[in-house]
Amino acid sequence: MTQERKKGIRARIVVVEVFFFSFILLLGANAVKIQILDSNDLARKAENEYTGTVRIQGKRGEILDRNMNRLGTTIDALSVAASAKKIENPAKDARAIASVLKIDPVKLRKRLSSRRSFVPIKRKISPAEARELKALDIKGLIFQNDVIRFYPNRTLAGQVIGFTGSDAKGLEGLEYGYDSVLQGQRTRLTVTKDATGRQLDPEKRLQERFSGGSLVLTIDRNIQYLSETALEDVVSRFRARSGMAVVMRPKTGEILAMALYPEFNPNAFSEFTRESWRNRVVTDPFEPGSVMKVFVAASAMDKGYCTSKSIFFCENGAYKVGSKVIHDTHESGWLTLGQILKYSSNIGMVKITETTGKQALYDSLTGFGFGRKTGLGSPGESSGTLSSPGKWSTIDTSAITFGQGMSVTALQLAVGFSAIANDGVLMRPLLVQKTLLNTGETDQEFKPQVQRRVISKHTARTVRKMMRSVVSEGGTGFSAALEGYSVCGKTGTAQKVAKGGGGYSKYLYTAAFAGFAPEVNPELVVVVVVDEPRKSHYGSVVAAPAFKSILAESFHYLNIPPDLEQEQIVARVSDGAKS
Amino acid sequence: MEWNADRIRKNGVKQEIKKIPGRWLVILLIFLCELFIYTGIRVECTRKGFQISHAEQARKQSEAYRKELIIERERLGSPERIATIARTRLGLDMPEQGQVVYMDR
């Protein structure tokens, strides 16, 4: 090999070496750039390829009755939309879709012709509608997961539970009052996606994970049903405007039923008037009539102004107070306090208040919780109206003794009667027993809470005896008497203020009955209020039979045997081993 | 002497030639085994992946069905429905006082 040829080869080798060296240097530099300098940016870009941010709205929690039956729950549904660009034949497809969803085809066609990439069609469609739409096999239809708030018992306790809007926010009742507990968490999450862009952690599971808490009520759905049925019966029988009933345990303040009629179905709240959405038991005060006499008599005895045997002259049925004359339904002369209650004498009550004075009357009524909110926690609660005694004229004071010129809610009446049934101790009413976390564990528990003692135990027992006489033969509330049980109660018939003002109407009344049983150890307090009954307006005729029906059926259901001596069938559960 | 040395060298080369295919064969076999095992594992992994996916799908369906059944049970067990069936289909009515049996508490 010549020297020149050798040189040439060396030169070529050097060139190749330089080339490879440069190439390797370049690769190295690029590796440093990728691995060190641009690593954060590139990692973020890579992450964006397989992750995405989604907005999660956790499912709303459930509303359960005291036996864990679902009164309100959330179920999965689908919403349908369309990518208008992909719709091949808007006119034909709009007709087909509209016939399944029962919507206006003309409007839908216009929207599908817009060529927008997302046209919402209908939210919360039924599973059958979804199946039919999928069967149409229309290109461009988009199905999205959605949820529906569902009330499986339909109208049962509809006004108490309330309802939610389309954005799953509570709008009425407990749904509104406890929205912060029930509402699922709203959050943004980074989720992992697969190559086709689908989320690896499905949205439904995330919705479950961030779901809201649940409410366990004190309501018993069976007693609620019994009360609603009795109310429906009385309202339709007497062609009344409406009715309400409360069933309460006096020892704990737990509300077992809060019934209203006309009914309301929260599954289709828009089909009902706004009037029927309200839980009128807590929101609507009314003039209660003679049921208030019990509280006046109780406080007069408790403060020592009189005893159950004190006698008052009842003016033979007519008594002039100021410029007005007060009348009794039954003309009476001298009556004991017990008889005043038994025959529901207005004049007798006025005479008692003339002894006690208006300040004592005011103190006793506020003591029983009238004129104040009960603190139930249900939205829109009214405190009723009870003006200060300084504003009362003589006739006002007289009217208040028999439940006119003031207003109370049905709940306040139930709480007041519970205090008498509970040996004079006023309990805070309970509608929500506890709240649960989305894991099912107890978050907050609401225990029975004593508010105050309003009358002595002795007075409470004496008043119960007097109330017992009201439901005995000859008393105004005899139609509430329940065979085998010692029922205590009081009727109430109140004139309503005439529509358009100008004093009380001669035709519009509120009929009420409130009471409890058994006398010695009261288990249930029941209040029934019927608004504007037409065939008869007396509490004894209209409300007392409904009270009796609710009490009897609730006692049967709760296995509370009669307390009076009578033949009864008692079954014992044998454990087998001891028999 | 030279002839012997040449023969010994030739035998050594022959032995090496004989040794080399055996070693390579073993390596090849190991490699093939590894390939088969790897392929087998991959196939099994994919199969298990599909099974898991099916099971997950079945679980989701069962979960959704369970929820539907719970709601259905609530609806079917509503007092209104039971009372209607008792009255209309079974001819029952609310009991009178003397017809009630109390359980001893």
Report on this model:
The complex is a heterodimer of chains A (579) and B (105). Chain A is an alpha+beta fold. Chain A has two domains: 77-152, Alpha-Beta Complex (Penicillin-binding protein 2a (Domain 2)); 221-558, Beta-lactamase. Chain A contains 19 helices and 21 strands. Chain A has helices at residues 3-37, 39-50, 90-101, 105-112, 127-136, 158-161, 173-177, 179-182, 203-209, 221-237, 280-283, 293-302, 337-342, 346-356, 358-367, 394-401, 410-421, 457-470, 539-558, and strands spanning 51-57, 63-64, 70-82, 119-125, 141-150, 186-192, 214-217, 242-248, 255-261, 311-313, 318-321, 324-327, 334-336, 425-427, 432-436, 442-445, 450-453, 488-497, 504-517, 524-531, 569-571. In chain A, strands 2, 3, 4, 5, 7, 15 and 16 form a seven-stranded mixed beta sheet that branches. In chain A, strands 9-8-20-19-18 form a five-stranded antiparallel beta sheet, with helices on both faces. In chain A, strand 18 and strand 19 (504-517) form a beta hairpin. Chain A is elongated and about 155 Å long. The N and C termini of chain A lie far apart (122 Å). The model of chain A has no long low-confidence stretch (mean pLDDT 90). The relative contact order of chain B is 0.03. The model of chain B has no long low-confidence stretch (mean pLDDT 84). Chain B has one domain (2-91). Chain B has 105 residues and is mainly α. Chain B has helices at residues 2-76, 79-88; one strand spanning 101-103. The A-B interface holds A 69-70, 73, 75-76, 150, 152-156, 202, 204, 221-222, 224-226, 229, 482-484, 552-553, 556, 559, 561-562, 567-573 and B 60, 64, 67-68, 70-71, 74-75, 77-80, 83, 94-95, 97-98, 100-105. Strand 21 of chain A pairs parallel with strand 1 (101-103) of chain B, so a sheet runs across the interface.
